[in-house]
Amino acid sequence: FFGRLNLMEVATVAASQGLFFAFGWLFFKHYLFKDYEVRRSFVQLVFACTFQLSCTMLELIIFEILDVLSRPTRQFCWRLSLHANLLLLVIFLPFCICYSLVRMLSGVQAVPLRTLLASGCWLGYFYMFWKLGQPFSLLSPQQGVFSIEQGISRIGIIGVTSIATLSGFGAVYSPYTYMSYFMRTVTPQEVALYERRLMQTLSMIANKKRKIALAKRKGSTTDGGRLSSLWSMLGSSSGGVENIASMEQDVSALETLSHQLFLEVNDMHGATARMQQARTLKGRYFNVLGYFLSVYCVYKIVMAAVNVALNRVGKMDPVSRGIQITVDWLGFDFDVKFWSQQMSFLLVGVIIVSSIRSLLIQLTKLFHFFASSASSNLMVLLLAQFMGMYFVSLVILMRMNMPAEYRVIVTEVLGDLEFRFYHHWFDVIFLLSALSSIAVIYVARKQVPEGGA
User: Fold this and answer.
1) Whole-structure pTM value
2) 112 exposed, middle or buried (CB, 10 Å; 0-12, 13-18, 19+)?
3) N-to-C CA span, the chain
4) How far apart are CA 407 and CA 395, in angstroms?
């Protein structure tokens, strides 16, 4: 088998992996974690390697469509990439996450003991990971325990669930944010009113804290006198303590109110900025785009509901279906094989680019929301694990978007999986995610103050 490999083609794939690694490293250093200190270069290396292996699989899908490399070389690169991803996502990354978690929470300094605790944590994770696939009929009985399908099938459940959840939320939230119909209307008078309330609340908090500080200072001065009478201590000290406690409760309530007012003022300024942008040419473009996306959202939800209700999965890829409609209904005569290849390349390329962009944006938001100086290393490893599972599952789902002649090697290397299950599972989770997003947005809009709605 190795004698049939073209070394120049393997070198080309290796060079592209170097570019992917460099892009992942630069994205890590200068965009994703620029505001946080990730001290361990090992963690940065793991993130860049995960990004590299993930992009390599998507690159190989494009090579399948364009027939860039020879078949033995593509097959070798596919198998190498999948095995490397499995080792990374099933064994290496989970152990690193467990080790980082034990180091952060336990405070154990001895490396052997820390490694032992991390190994026990990893065994618990692996047991749950293995049990995850048992309720589903993912494999044929002929598959062995250590076959590649065992790992891919379980990674696919987690990854497809993540993709469907993000897709369902995005299908609802994108038109909601783009369309001016759903835009909150805020007047300058309302903004000024809430800002004035916020400033008054902050002033009250400052006055209360000043009085508390003076009362504590006076109490400490009084208690410091050794010759103070017992009646003075019993009479004035008790009332002063009660007064301080009452003022501290008032300060706590006012700080909660100030936090809510600050969030409301911030939302109002954001709504004002969106109103101003909606009047520009770019805003009008996004408004029109929002209407198209809303129609697409309704179509996707209806089709997902029909697929779930009828327990069906599409058997023809979108490109072949479009060409068939063009030839049969419109009567056009053209080179079907040539245009099928070009349109498949375009469709898959758009899906890959948009998926990578969307995932990187979501990773950035998640990290900035959850990360802190103490947990930044752990968050990097968790996001790398999520990213790897996401892209492996994306390959499973993208197989359906490829014409039959281009998906042969992909089907061979992924093994004997129940591909139909993953597409049906995607429809179920997508439908639940979209309907839940609609419900959450509806409730959130109902809770907007009447004056700002």
Assistant:
1) 0.70
2) exposed
3) 67
4) 11
